[in-house]
Amino acid sequence: MPPSPQVLVVGAGPTGLALAAELAAFGISCHVVDKRAGRSPLSRACTVEPRTLELLDMRGRADDVLKWGRECPHPPLGNEDGHLDYGLLDTTFPFSLSIPQTRTEEALQLAAEKAGAVLLPGTELTGLRQDDTGVEVELTGPHGPRVERARYVVGCDGVNSTVRQVIGVEYDGWHYDESLMMGDARLSNPPGPAEYARITRRGMAALFPFQDGTYRVIVLDRQKFSVPADEPLTLEDLSESCAAVLGTDIGLHSPLWLSRFRSSQRHAKRYRVGRVLLAGDAAHTHIPSGGQGLQTGIQDAFNLGWKLRAVLAGWAPEELIDSYEAERHPIAAETLRKTDLSFRFETSDSATARLMRRAAMWSMRIRPVHRLNVEHLSGLRLRYPSGGQGRWAGRRVPDRPLASPQGPLYGLFRDGGFVLLGTDSCPPAAAPWADRLRTGVLAEPLGGGWPRYVLVRPDGYVAWAGPVADNGLAAALRRWCGTPAPAAR
Question: Taken in order 231, 233, 237, 243, is the CA torsion positive or negative?
Protein backbone atom coordinates (compact mmCIF):
# COMPACT_ATOMS: atom_id res chain seq x y z
CA MET A 1 0.00 0.00 0.00
CA PRO A 2 1.16 3.56 -0.67
CA PRO A 3 2.28 5.63 2.36
CA SER A 4 -0.33 7.56 4.33
CA PRO A 5 -1.47 10.76 2.61
CA GLN A 6 -1.68 14.32 3.84
CA VAL A 7 -5.33 14.44 2.76
CA LEU A 8 -7.78 11.56 2.50
CA VAL A 9 -10.77 12.26 0.25
CA VAL A 10 -13.80 10.01 0.77
CA GLY A 11 -15.90 9.73 -2.39
CA ALA A 12 -14.81 9.59 -6.04
CA GLY A 13 -17.62 11.61 -7.60
CA PRO A 14 -17.04 14.94 -9.37
CA THR A 15 -16.36 16.84 -6.12
CA GLY A 16 -13.89 14.34 -4.69
CA LEU A 17 -12.04 13.93 -7.98
CA ALA A 18 -11.85 17.69 -8.56
CA LEU A 19 -10.45 18.17 -5.06
CA ALA A 20 -7.93 15.36 -5.51
CA ALA A 21 -6.73 16.88 -8.79
CA GLU A 22 -6.32 20.26 -7.08
CA LEU A 23 -4.38 18.89 -4.12
CA ALA A 24 -2.14 16.54 -6.06
CA ALA A 25 -1.29 19.23 -8.61
CA PHE A 26 -0.17 21.44 -5.70
CA GLY A 27 2.17 18.71 -4.43
CA ILE A 28 -0.12 17.53 -1.62
CA SER A 29 -0.21 13.73 -1.24
CA CYS A 30 -3.81 12.59 -1.57
CA HIS A 31 -5.75 9.32 -1.50
CA VAL A 32 -9.33 8.98 -2.77
CA VAL A 33 -11.37 6.08 -1.39
CA ASP A 34 -14.77 5.08 -2.73
CA LYS A 35 -16.87 2.13 -1.67
CA ARG A 36 -17.99 1.64 -5.27
CA ALA A 37 -15.79 -0.71 -7.27
CA GLY A 38 -16.66 1.11 -10.49
CA ARG A 39 -18.35 4.20 -11.85
CA SER A 40 -22.15 4.28 -11.85
CA PRO A 41 -23.81 4.19 -15.30
CA LEU A 42 -26.63 6.41 -13.98
CA SER A 43 -25.43 9.84 -15.01
CA ARG A 44 -27.80 12.28 -13.37
CA ALA A 45 -25.72 15.45 -13.66
CA CYS A 46 -25.50 16.44 -17.31
CA THR A 47 -24.37 20.07 -17.38
CA VAL A 48 -21.17 22.00 -16.83
CA GLU A 49 -21.73 25.75 -16.59
CA PRO A 50 -19.33 28.55 -17.67
CA ARG A 51 -17.91 29.36 -14.24
CA THR A 52 -17.04 25.72 -13.62
CA LEU A 53 -15.35 25.59 -17.03
CA GLU A 54 -13.41 28.73 -16.14
CA LEU A 55 -12.11 27.14 -12.94
CA LEU A 56 -11.04 24.04 -14.84
CA ASP A 57 -9.40 26.27 -17.44
CA MET A 58 -7.32 27.96 -14.74
CA ARG A 59 -5.65 24.59 -14.13
CA GLY A 60 -5.45 23.58 -17.79
CA ARG A 61 -8.20 20.95 -17.47
CA ALA A 62 -11.09 22.45 -19.44
CA ASP A 63 -10.15 20.81 -22.75
CA ASP A 64 -10.44 17.34 -21.22
CA VAL A 65 -14.08 18.08 -20.40
CA LEU A 66 -14.91 20.05 -23.55
CA LYS A 67 -13.92 17.21 -25.85
CA TRP A 68 -16.70 15.02 -24.39
CA GLY A 69 -19.39 17.71 -24.29
CA ARG A 70 -21.81 19.45 -26.61
CA GLU A 71 -21.97 23.23 -26.46
CA CYS A 72 -25.44 24.63 -25.77
CA PRO A 73 -25.41 28.44 -26.15
CA HIS A 74 -29.22 28.75 -26.08
CA PRO A 75 -30.83 26.50 -23.42
CA PRO A 76 -34.64 26.40 -23.75
CA LEU A 77 -36.96 28.18 -21.34
CA GLY A 78 -39.99 25.93 -21.78
CA ASN A 79 -42.20 27.84 -24.19
CA GLU A 80 -42.23 27.52 -27.99
CA ASP A 81 -39.46 29.98 -28.86
CA GLY A 82 -37.96 31.22 -25.58
CA HIS A 83 -34.33 30.49 -24.76
CA LEU A 84 -31.43 31.78 -22.71
CA ASP A 85 -28.69 33.62 -24.57
CA TYR A 86 -25.28 32.71 -23.16
CA GLY A 87 -23.74 34.99 -25.78
CA LEU A 88 -24.45 37.87 -23.39
CA LEU A 89 -21.82 36.57 -20.96
CA ASP A 90 -18.32 37.96 -20.51
CA THR A 91 -16.51 34.62 -20.62
CA THR A 92 -14.39 32.42 -22.84
CA PHE A 93 -17.14 29.80 -22.51
CA PRO A 94 -20.44 31.42 -23.59
CA PHE A 95 -22.45 28.22 -23.39
CA SER A 96 -23.73 25.49 -21.12
CA LEU A 97 -21.94 22.22 -21.82
CA SER A 98 -24.13 19.11 -22.12
CA ILE A 99 -22.04 16.16 -20.94
CA PRO A 100 -22.88 12.95 -19.07
CA GLN A 101 -21.59 12.93 -15.51
CA THR A 102 -19.64 9.76 -16.27
CA ARG A 103 -17.58 11.68 -18.85
CA THR A 104 -16.98 14.56 -16.45
CA GLU A 105 -15.79 12.08 -13.85
CA GLU A 106 -13.48 10.40 -16.38
CA ALA A 107 -11.84 13.74 -17.19
CA LEU A 108 -11.44 14.67 -13.53
CA GLN A 109 -10.08 11.22 -12.62
CA LEU A 110 -7.54 11.49 -15.42
CA ALA A 111 -6.43 14.88 -14.08
CA ALA A 112 -6.24 13.58 -10.50
CA GLU A 113 -4.21 10.48 -11.35
CA LYS A 114 -1.94 12.39 -13.73
CA ALA A 115 -1.17 14.82 -10.90
CA GLY A 116 -0.29 11.95 -8.57
CA ALA A 117 -3.46 11.28 -6.54
CA VAL A 118 -4.00 7.63 -5.56
CA LEU A 119 -7.50 6.23 -6.18
CA LEU A 120 -8.65 3.25 -4.11
CA PRO A 121 -11.97 1.90 -5.45
CA GLY A 122 -13.95 -0.65 -3.49
CA THR A 123 -12.68 0.84 -0.24
CA GLU A 124 -15.11 1.96 2.46
CA LEU A 125 -14.55 4.22 5.45
CA THR A 126 -15.88 2.45 8.55
CA GLY A 127 -14.50 4.56 11.39
CA LEU A 128 -12.79 7.85 12.16
CA ARG A 129 -10.98 9.41 15.12
CA GLN A 130 -9.15 12.72 15.19
CA ASP A 131 -6.75 14.61 17.42
CA ASP A 132 -4.81 17.87 17.23
CA THR A 133 -2.38 16.63 14.59
CA GLY A 134 -4.41 14.41 12.29
CA VAL A 135 -7.19 11.94 11.61
CA GLU A 136 -7.04 8.16 11.96
CA VAL A 137 -9.47 6.34 9.69
CA GLU A 138 -10.55 2.73 9.52
CA LEU A 139 -10.89 1.43 5.98
CA THR A 140 -12.19 -1.82 4.54
CA GLY A 141 -11.17 -2.69 1.00
CA PRO A 142 -10.27 -5.53 -1.37
CA HIS A 143 -7.36 -6.54 0.90
CA GLY A 144 -9.32 -6.41 4.14
CA PRO A 145 -9.47 -3.84 6.96
CA ARG A 146 -6.65 -1.42 7.73
CA VAL A 147 -5.97 1.85 9.52
CA GLU A 148 -4.63 4.94 7.78
CA ARG A 149 -3.70 8.37 9.10
CA ALA A 150 -4.01 11.72 7.33
CA ARG A 151 -3.61 15.35 8.29
CA TYR A 152 -7.13 16.11 7.00
CA VAL A 153 -10.15 14.13 5.78
CA VAL A 154 -12.71 15.54 3.35
CA GLY A 155 -16.08 13.83 3.00
CA CYS A 156 -17.28 14.01 -0.60
CA ASP A 157 -19.34 10.85 -0.21
CA GLY A 158 -22.79 12.05 -1.20
CA VAL A 159 -26.14 12.59 0.42
CA ASN A 160 -25.80 9.49 2.63
CA SER A 161 -22.30 10.56 3.70
CA THR A 162 -20.66 8.24 6.20
CA VAL A 163 -18.17 10.97 7.06
CA ARG A 164 -20.94 13.42 7.94
CA GLN A 165 -22.68 10.85 10.09
CA VAL A 166 -19.50 9.88 11.94
CA ILE A 167 -18.68 13.49 12.87
CA GLY A 168 -22.29 14.08 13.93
CA VAL A 169 -23.22 16.98 11.63
CA GLU A 170 -26.95 17.57 11.14
CA TYR A 171 -28.27 17.47 7.57
CA ASP A 172 -31.44 19.51 7.68
CA GLY A 173 -34.06 19.71 4.96
CA TRP A 174 -36.90 17.78 3.39
CA HIS A 175 -37.94 15.43 0.60
CA TYR A 176 -40.34 16.48 -2.15
CA ASP A 177 -43.43 14.34 -2.60
CA GLU A 178 -43.36 14.48 -6.40
CA SER A 179 -41.90 11.55 -8.33
CA LEU A 180 -40.02 12.61 -11.49
CA MET A 181 -38.62 10.69 -14.45
CA MET A 182 -35.21 10.79 -16.07
CA GLY A 183 -33.10 8.78 -18.48
CA ASP A 184 -30.72 8.73 -21.42
CA ALA A 185 -32.09 7.41 -24.72
CA ARG A 186 -32.11 7.97 -28.46
CA LEU A 187 -34.88 9.71 -30.42
CA SER A 188 -36.11 8.77 -33.89
CA ASN A 189 -38.16 11.97 -34.19
CA PRO A 190 -36.28 14.70 -32.28
CA PRO A 191 -37.87 18.16 -32.14
CA GLY A 192 -36.13 21.30 -33.31
CA PRO A 193 -34.14 23.00 -31.98
CA ALA A 194 -32.00 20.19 -30.58
CA GLU A 195 -32.23 21.45 -26.98
CA TYR A 196 -35.94 21.54 -26.30
CA ALA A 197 -38.29 22.00 -23.36
CA ARG A 198 -42.02 22.55 -22.88
CA ILE A 199 -44.08 23.42 -19.81
CA THR A 200 -47.79 22.63 -20.25
CA ARG A 201 -50.80 21.81 -18.05
CA ARG A 202 -49.67 18.16 -18.02
CA GLY A 203 -46.16 18.98 -16.79
CA MET A 204 -42.68 19.67 -18.12
CA ALA A 205 -40.37 17.80 -20.47
CA ALA A 206 -36.81 18.76 -21.35
CA LEU A 207 -34.49 17.21 -23.92
CA PHE A 208 -30.74 17.78 -24.11
CA PRO A 209 -28.62 15.98 -26.72
CA PHE A 210 -25.17 14.66 -25.92
CA GLN A 211 -22.24 14.48 -28.29
CA ASP A 212 -22.87 10.80 -29.06
CA GLY A 213 -26.45 11.36 -30.25
CA THR A 214 -28.23 10.20 -27.10
CA TYR A 215 -30.54 12.59 -25.26
CA ARG A 216 -30.98 13.38 -21.61
CA VAL A 217 -34.76 13.22 -21.06
CA ILE A 218 -36.27 14.83 -17.95
CA VAL A 219 -40.02 14.70 -17.35
CA LEU A 220 -42.28 16.14 -14.65
CA ASP A 221 -45.67 14.53 -15.30
CA ARG A 222 -48.31 15.87 -12.90
CA GLN A 223 -50.48 12.79 -13.45
CA LYS A 224 -47.65 10.53 -12.25
CA PHE A 225 -46.23 12.52 -9.34
CA SER A 226 -47.60 9.96 -6.87
CA VAL A 227 -45.93 6.94 -8.50
CA PRO A 228 -43.41 5.47 -6.02
CA ALA A 229 -39.83 6.40 -6.89
CA ASP A 230 -38.72 2.78 -6.52
CA GLU A 231 -41.21 1.56 -9.15
CA PRO A 232 -39.22 0.69 -12.31
CA LEU A 233 -39.61 3.18 -15.15
CA THR A 234 -40.35 1.62 -18.52
CA LEU A 235 -39.65 3.10 -21.93
CA GLU A 236 -43.38 2.96 -22.69
CA ASP A 237 -44.25 4.93 -19.57
CA LEU A 238 -41.65 7.62 -20.29
CA SER A 239 -42.73 7.82 -23.94
CA GLU A 240 -46.38 8.30 -22.98
CA SER A 241 -45.52 11.14 -20.61
CA CYS A 242 -43.25 12.84 -23.15
CA ALA A 243 -45.94 12.68 -25.84
CA ALA A 244 -48.58 14.02 -23.45
CA VAL A 245 -46.45 17.00 -22.42
CA LEU A 246 -44.86 17.78 -25.79
CA GLY A 247 -47.91 17.05 -27.93
CA THR A 248 -45.92 14.79 -30.26
CA ASP A 249 -44.20 11.41 -30.26
CA ILE A 250 -40.43 11.94 -30.27
CA GLY A 251 -39.67 8.25 -30.85
CA LEU A 252 -37.81 7.29 -27.71
CA HIS A 253 -35.74 4.12 -28.13
CA SER A 254 -32.51 2.36 -27.11
CA PRO A 255 -32.37 3.67 -23.53
CA LEU A 256 -29.06 3.51 -21.68
CA TRP A 257 -30.83 3.86 -18.34
CA LEU A 258 -34.21 5.00 -16.99
CA SER A 259 -35.14 5.98 -13.46
CA ARG A 260 -37.77 7.58 -11.26
CA PHE A 261 -36.56 9.75 -8.42
CA ARG A 262 -37.69 12.08 -5.68
CA SER A 263 -35.54 15.10 -4.98
CA SER A 264 -34.44 16.48 -1.63
CA GLN A 265 -33.33 19.83 -0.30
CA ARG A 266 -30.81 19.33 2.49
CA HIS A 267 -27.96 21.34 3.96
CA ALA A 268 -25.30 20.43 6.52
CA LYS A 269 -25.23 22.67 9.59
CA ARG A 270 -21.43 22.77 9.45
CA TYR A 271 -18.78 22.06 6.84
CA ARG A 272 -15.91 21.55 9.30
CA VAL A 273 -15.40 19.65 12.53
CA GLY A 274 -11.75 19.83 13.51
CA ARG A 275 -9.68 18.26 10.77
CA VAL A 276 -12.67 16.77 8.95
CA LEU A 277 -14.50 18.74 6.25
CA LEU A 278 -17.53 18.19 4.00
CA ALA A 279 -18.00 19.11 0.34
CA GLY A 280 -20.41 18.47 -2.52
CA ASP A 281 -23.56 16.44 -1.86
CA ALA A 282 -22.24 15.46 1.56
CA ALA A 283 -22.67 19.12 2.50
CA HIS A 284 -25.70 20.10 0.40
CA THR A 285 -28.16 18.56 -2.02
CA HIS A 286 -31.06 19.98 -3.99
CA ILE A 287 -33.25 19.34 -7.01
CA PRO A 288 -31.50 19.15 -10.39
CA SER A 289 -33.13 22.30 -11.82
CA GLY A 290 -30.49 24.34 -13.60
CA GLY A 291 -27.82 21.68 -13.15
CA GLN A 292 -26.43 23.45 -10.10
CA GLY A 293 -25.47 20.42 -8.00
CA LEU A 294 -22.34 19.50 -9.93
CA GLN A 295 -21.33 23.16 -10.23
CA THR A 296 -21.62 23.77 -6.49
CA GLY A 297 -19.65 20.64 -5.66
CA ILE A 298 -16.74 21.34 -8.02
CA GLN A 299 -16.63 24.95 -6.87
CA ASP A 300 -16.46 23.69 -3.26
CA ALA A 301 -13.38 21.73 -4.31
CA PHE A 302 -11.68 24.74 -5.87
CA ASN A 303 -12.38 26.90 -2.84
CA LEU A 304 -11.10 24.31 -0.38
CA GLY A 305 -8.21 22.90 -2.38
CA TRP A 306 -5.89 25.89 -2.40
CA LYS A 307 -6.61 26.62 1.27
CA LEU A 308 -5.64 23.13 2.37
CA ARG A 309 -2.51 23.40 0.24
CA ALA A 310 -1.61 26.77 1.77
CA VAL A 311 -1.90 25.42 5.32
CA LEU A 312 -0.14 22.13 4.61
CA ALA A 313 2.68 23.96 2.80
CA GLY A 314 3.17 26.06 5.92
CA TRP A 315 2.62 29.48 4.40
CA ALA A 316 -0.86 30.19 5.71
CA PRO A 317 -2.46 29.99 9.16
CA GLU A 318 -4.80 27.17 10.13
CA GLU A 319 -7.64 29.72 10.36
CA LEU A 320 -7.61 30.05 6.56
CA ILE A 321 -9.49 26.75 6.33
CA ASP A 322 -12.34 28.27 8.37
CA SER A 323 -13.00 30.66 5.48
CA TYR A 324 -14.11 27.65 3.39
CA GLU A 325 -17.31 27.22 5.39
CA ALA A 326 -17.77 30.99 5.80
CA GLU A 327 -17.71 31.44 2.03
CA ARG A 328 -19.32 28.31 0.68
CA HIS A 329 -22.15 27.71 3.20
CA PRO A 330 -24.06 30.90 2.18
CA ILE A 331 -23.58 30.05 -1.51
CA ALA A 332 -25.17 26.63 -1.04
CA ALA A 333 -27.98 28.11 1.09
CA GLU A 334 -28.84 30.58 -1.67
CA THR A 335 -28.66 27.83 -4.30
CA LEU A 336 -31.10 25.72 -2.29
CA ARG A 337 -33.47 28.67 -1.99
CA LYS A 338 -33.41 29.33 -5.75
CA THR A 339 -33.75 25.70 -6.80
CA ASP A 340 -36.70 25.27 -4.43
CA LEU A 341 -38.45 28.23 -6.05
CA SER A 342 -37.63 26.85 -9.48
CA PHE A 343 -39.08 23.45 -8.61
CA ARG A 344 -42.30 24.94 -7.30
CA PHE A 345 -42.45 27.15 -10.40
CA GLU A 346 -42.13 24.09 -12.66
CA THR A 347 -44.45 21.68 -10.85
CA SER A 348 -47.38 23.78 -9.67
CA ASP A 349 -50.51 23.99 -11.81
CA SER A 350 -52.32 26.64 -9.80
CA ALA A 351 -53.70 29.70 -11.56
CA THR A 352 -51.15 31.83 -9.73
CA ALA A 353 -48.28 29.61 -10.86
CA ARG A 354 -49.44 29.67 -14.48
CA LEU A 355 -49.68 33.44 -14.36
CA MET A 356 -46.21 33.70 -12.84
CA ARG A 357 -44.76 31.45 -15.55
CA ARG A 358 -46.22 33.63 -18.27
CA ALA A 359 -44.88 36.76 -16.56
CA ALA A 360 -41.43 35.19 -16.16
CA MET A 361 -41.30 34.21 -19.83
CA TRP A 362 -42.32 37.72 -20.85
CA SER A 363 -39.74 39.35 -18.55
CA MET A 364 -36.94 37.44 -20.28
CA ARG A 365 -37.52 39.67 -23.31
CA ILE A 366 -36.09 42.55 -21.27
CA ARG A 367 -32.36 42.47 -21.97
CA PRO A 368 -31.05 43.47 -18.49
CA VAL A 369 -33.37 40.95 -16.83
CA HIS A 370 -32.30 38.27 -19.29
CA ARG A 371 -28.60 38.99 -18.75
CA LEU A 372 -29.00 38.91 -14.97
CA ASN A 373 -30.69 35.51 -15.07
CA VAL A 374 -28.06 34.02 -17.37
CA GLU A 375 -25.24 35.38 -15.22
CA HIS A 376 -26.75 33.78 -12.12
CA LEU A 377 -27.34 30.42 -13.82
CA SER A 378 -23.84 30.36 -15.31
CA GLY A 379 -22.20 31.07 -11.95
CA LEU A 380 -20.51 34.25 -13.14
CA ARG A 381 -22.27 36.46 -10.58
CA LEU A 382 -21.11 34.41 -7.63
CA ARG A 383 -19.10 36.48 -5.17
CA TYR A 384 -17.75 35.96 -1.70
CA PRO A 385 -17.98 38.30 1.30
CA SER A 386 -15.50 41.17 1.04
CA GLY A 387 -14.32 40.78 4.63
CA GLY A 388 -13.96 44.54 4.92
CA GLN A 389 -11.45 44.62 2.04
CA GLY A 390 -13.47 46.99 -0.16
CA ARG A 391 -16.09 46.74 -2.89
CA TRP A 392 -13.96 44.62 -5.25
CA ALA A 393 -12.95 41.90 -2.82
CA GLY A 394 -14.74 38.59 -3.39
CA ARG A 395 -15.59 39.29 -7.03
CA ARG A 396 -14.80 36.94 -9.90
CA VAL A 397 -12.03 38.11 -12.21
CA PRO A 398 -12.84 37.53 -15.91
CA ASP A 399 -10.21 36.17 -18.27
CA ARG A 400 -8.35 38.73 -20.35
CA PRO A 401 -5.31 38.66 -22.63
CA LEU A 402 -2.05 39.69 -21.00
CA ALA A 403 0.59 41.91 -22.49
CA SER A 404 2.86 39.89 -24.78
CA PRO A 405 4.27 37.31 -24.37
CA GLN A 406 2.35 35.98 -21.34
CA GLY A 407 -0.86 34.81 -23.02
CA PRO A 408 -4.29 34.70 -21.27
CA LEU A 409 -4.70 35.77 -17.65
CA TYR A 410 -6.10 32.41 -16.58
CA GLY A 411 -2.83 30.80 -17.68
CA LEU A 412 -1.13 32.46 -14.69
CA PHE A 413 -3.19 30.27 -12.34
CA ARG A 414 -1.80 26.95 -13.59
CA ASP A 415 0.43 26.49 -10.53
CA GLY A 416 -2.31 27.45 -8.06
CA GLY A 417 -0.68 30.61 -6.71
CA PHE A 418 -1.91 34.16 -6.21
CA VAL A 419 -1.77 36.60 -9.13
CA LEU A 420 -1.10 40.34 -8.87
CA LEU A 421 -2.31 42.32 -11.86
CA GLY A 422 -1.09 45.78 -12.71
CA THR A 423 2.69 45.53 -12.99
CA ASP A 424 5.27 43.46 -14.81
CA SER A 425 7.43 43.21 -11.69
CA CYS A 426 6.68 42.47 -8.06
CA PRO A 427 6.17 45.80 -6.22
CA PRO A 428 8.04 46.37 -2.93
CA ALA A 429 4.92 45.84 -0.80
CA ALA A 430 4.47 42.35 -2.27
CA ALA A 431 8.13 41.33 -2.58
CA PRO A 432 8.24 39.29 0.68
CA TRP A 433 5.58 36.96 -0.76
CA ALA A 434 7.18 36.56 -4.19
CA ASP A 435 7.47 32.78 -3.65
CA ARG A 436 3.69 32.40 -3.80
CA LEU A 437 2.79 35.20 -6.19
CA ARG A 438 2.85 35.77 -9.96
CA THR A 439 2.47 39.13 -11.66
CA GLY A 440 0.94 40.17 -14.95
CA VAL A 441 0.04 43.19 -17.06
CA LEU A 442 -3.33 43.18 -18.82
CA ALA A 443 -3.50 43.94 -22.53
CA GLU A 444 -7.21 44.72 -22.08
CA PRO A 445 -8.96 46.21 -19.02
CA LEU A 446 -11.01 43.99 -16.72
CA GLY A 447 -13.89 46.43 -17.13
CA GLY A 448 -14.97 49.91 -16.24
CA GLY A 449 -13.87 51.23 -12.87
CA TRP A 450 -11.51 48.43 -11.85
CA PRO A 451 -8.51 49.68 -9.79
CA ARG A 452 -4.99 49.58 -11.16
CA TYR A 453 -3.77 46.78 -8.86
CA VAL A 454 -5.77 43.60 -8.29
CA LEU A 455 -4.63 40.70 -6.13
CA VAL A 456 -6.41 37.53 -7.23
CA ARG A 457 -6.75 34.34 -5.21
CA PRO A 458 -5.86 30.92 -6.69
CA ASP A 459 -9.57 30.29 -7.34
CA GLY A 460 -9.97 33.45 -9.45
CA TYR A 461 -11.64 35.76 -6.93
CA VAL A 462 -10.35 39.14 -5.78
CA ALA A 463 -8.48 39.16 -2.46
CA TRP A 464 -7.66 42.87 -2.61
CA ALA A 465 -7.77 45.73 -5.12
CA GLY A 466 -6.51 49.30 -4.97
CA PRO A 467 -5.08 52.22 -6.94
CA VAL A 468 -1.56 51.78 -5.50
CA ALA A 469 0.43 48.79 -4.25
CA ASP A 470 0.78 50.05 -0.69
CA ASN A 471 0.42 48.66 2.81
CA GLY A 472 -3.14 47.58 1.99
CA LEU A 473 -1.70 45.01 -0.42
CA ALA A 474 0.80 43.82 2.19
CA ALA A 475 -1.99 43.45 4.76
CA ALA A 476 -4.08 41.42 2.31
CA LEU A 477 -1.14 39.16 1.51
CA ARG A 478 -0.45 38.62 5.20
CA ARG A 479 -4.14 37.77 5.77
CA TRP A 480 -4.38 35.25 2.92
CA CYS A 481 -0.80 34.01 2.59
CA GLY A 482 0.47 34.21 6.16
CA THR A 483 3.96 35.15 7.25
CA PRO A 484 6.51 35.69 4.46
CA ALA A 485 9.20 33.09 3.93
CA PRO A 486 12.24 33.79 6.16
CA ALA A 487 14.60 34.03 3.19
CA ALA A 488 12.46 36.78 1.67
CA ARG A 489 12.64 39.05 4.71
Answer: positive
H or E segment to which residue 85 belongs = none
Q: pLDDT tens digit string along 86-136?
A: 999 999 999 999 999 999 999 999 999 999 999 999 999 999 999 999 999
Residues β-bridged to residue 127: 138
Rounded to 5 degrees, what angle do the CA atoms 45, 50, 56 make? Answer: 85
CA angle, residues 207, 213, 217, in degrees to nearest 5: 25
What b/e readout covers 56-93, taking b as 16+ CB neighbours within 10 angstroms? bbbbebbebbbebbbebebbbbbbeebbbebebbebeb
Q: Which amino acid is at 376?
A: H
Task: Provide DSSP, 408-471.
Answer: BGGGGGTT--EEEES-SS--GGGGGGGGGEEEE-BSS-SSTT--SEEEE-TTSBEEEEESS-SH
Q: What's the longest Cα–Cα distance across the chain? A: 72
Among residues 126, 155, 142, 156, which one has the least CA distance to residue 1? 142
Q: Is the pTM of this model over 0.85?
A: yes
Cβ atoms within 10 Å of 147's Cβ, excluding its own: 11
What confidence tens digit (pLDDT) does each residue in 242-268 have?
999 999 999 999 999 999 988 889 999
Closest CA to 97 of 295, 252, 256, 332: 295
The conformational region for residue 407 under phi > 0 = left, psi -120 to 50 = alpha, else beta, is left
